Amino acid sequence: MIDVLLCPGDVALAEWRAIYRGAAVRLDPAHAERVAESAAAVARILAKGDPVYGINTGFGKLASVRIGDDDLARLQRNIVLSHAAGVGAPAPVPVVRLMMALKLASLAQGASGVRPETVALLEAMLAQGLTPVVPAQGSVGASGDLAPLAHMAATMIGVGEIFADGVRMPASDALRQAGLSPVELGPKEGLALLNGTQFSCSLALAGLFEAERLFQSALVTGALSTEAARGSDTPFDPRIHDLRRHRGQIEVAATLRALMAGSPIRASHLEGDARVQDPYCLRCQPQVMGAALDVLRQAAATLEIEANGVSDNPLIFPDTDEALSGGNFHAEPVAFAADMIALAICEIGSIAERRIAMLVDPALSGLPAFLTPRPGLNSGFMIPQVTAAALVSENKQRATPASVDSIPTSANQEDHVSMAAHGARRLLDMTENAMAVIGIEWLAAAQGVDFHAPLASSEPLEAARACLRNEVPTLTDDRHFHPVMERANALIRSGALLAVVHDLPGVA
């Protein structure tokens, strides 16, 4: 995997994806002049003696309290320590790394008033694999992701904990072992580090990237299920979808046609099959999966803009030596995007579960009951389908929009918040659930195709079936199902399934 050269304000979605997947990050050195100008502007603003929010005043409801020059450094340290008040399990390391990269790109645009040495420390921590321990709960997604980002900022001043090479240790020890020194925060720097949407955005991006893998995998298993049920490919005819005009629907139909092209099982469907129409779970895949793709792409567009923006407060404009206080920290765009992603994840899993249910029902699939050669003595896929149903039901509950909720904070100064952080935090769990459903479908669909031997499927679907069969043999008698399901899930999560099937549509 190549390194990502971070060009602040112009980072492609693919580069954020690469960082999430583990790519190293280097900051474009062209940023340095802008950062230095921004820090110098803060010094000039202070020299005027006027009260400026976050630089020489208190924060939030305490914005009217003026802070003396001798206490400015202490003010910034205090805001980091007091705001590092998160709870819950640590956010995943890939998510926190992505959050750090997002914050680095934001600060480097020269609108936050931080000094070059502060930016350099954050970049060095990323480069050396020092990942702050960030409790995942405690942000309401407005006034920035204050608590999570404060935990990140705390490690930069030598407080809190850091994961280094998989070992959790005090931040001061991790910095020292890496040859780094904690920074003493200057005016505005503490607020700049902990104000912004980078935690919510990193979680939403992580959910998007996992949802993209989920979507692509579900296209393959959906096509394989269609083969197993000897379903019709007429519903994928391009003339149908061109008339409706939705881009995602057109692309999904084309992908399903390509996945099944040249299949002997496809050809066998044309001979002697009395069915006129298949169930919706087969027939309406382009409409459902295409709509999910369109929604994911809209969320991706929003998140790409957000990831390249500056969302702390106040913002520094060196050309006029102004510090303008606004509300870019409000994460409503991220909250809406997260809700959209949640809906897509839920529907991808939901229609896949219906395909599993169809395959185990001999009246619908024409296959042996519960996909076992000896039903009765063997239960076959009876309970894996129940598990899939349970996971889909759980995702339905989690898909309830988070963005429609709000709760006042900071003594009603911050009276409308986005709930973006937990709206985005659920996405990784939801994709895990849905990927487990897709893993069950992969097992069930491959088993169904096995019953059609000696007929085979198409070249790409046979590659998908072989990928599974290299790890999991055909079910002949009941066996311990959990390890088999875990193996299928692991292959999907790792991208092994997608590695053998190409030209699948993505979110960007």
UniProtKB/TrEMBL annotation:
<dbReference type="InterPro" id="IPR005921">
    <property type="entry name" value="HutH"/>
</dbReference>
<dbReference type="Pfam" id="PF00221">
    <property type="entry name" value="Lyase_aromatic"/>
</dbReference>
<dbReference type="GO" id="GO:0004397">
    <property type="term" value="F:histidine ammonia-lyase activity"/>
</dbReference>
<dbReference type="GO" id="GO:0019557">
    <property type="term" value="P:L-histidine catabolic process to glutamate and formate"/>
</dbReference>
<dbReference type="GO" id="GO:0019556">
    <property type="term" value="P:L-histidine catabolic process to glutamate and formamide"/>
</dbReference>
<dbReference type="InterPro" id="IPR001106">
    <property type="entry name" value="Aromatic_Lyase"/>
</dbReference>
<keyword id="KW-0456">Lyase</keyword>
<dbReference type="GO" id="GO:0005737">
    <property type="term" value="C:cytoplasm"/>
</dbReference>
<keyword id="KW-0963">Cytoplasm</keyword>
<dbReference type="InterPro" id="IPR022313">
    <property type="entry name" value="Phe/His_NH3-lyase_AS"/>
</dbReference>
<comment type="pathway">
    <text>Amino-acid degradation; L-histidine degradation into L-glutamate; N-formimidoyl-L-glutamate from L-histidine: step 1/3.</text>
</comment>
<comment type="similarity">
    <text>Belongs to the PAL/histidase family.</text>
</comment>
<protein>
    <recommendedName>
        <fullName>Histidine ammonia-lyase</fullName>
        <ecNumber>4.3.1.3</ecNumber>
    </recommendedName>
</protein>
<dbReference type="InterPro" id="IPR008948">
    <property type="entry name" value="L-Aspartase-like"/>
</dbReference>
<dbReference type="InterPro" id="IPR024083">
    <property type="entry name" value="Fumarase/histidase_N"/>
</dbReference>
<feature type="modified residue" description="2,3-didehydroalanine (Ser)">
    <location>
        <position position="143"/>
    </location>
</feature>
<feature type="cross-link" description="5-imidazolinone (Ala-Gly)">
    <location>
        <begin position="142"/>
        <end position="144"/>
    </location>
</feature>
<keyword id="KW-0369">Histidine metabolism</keyword>
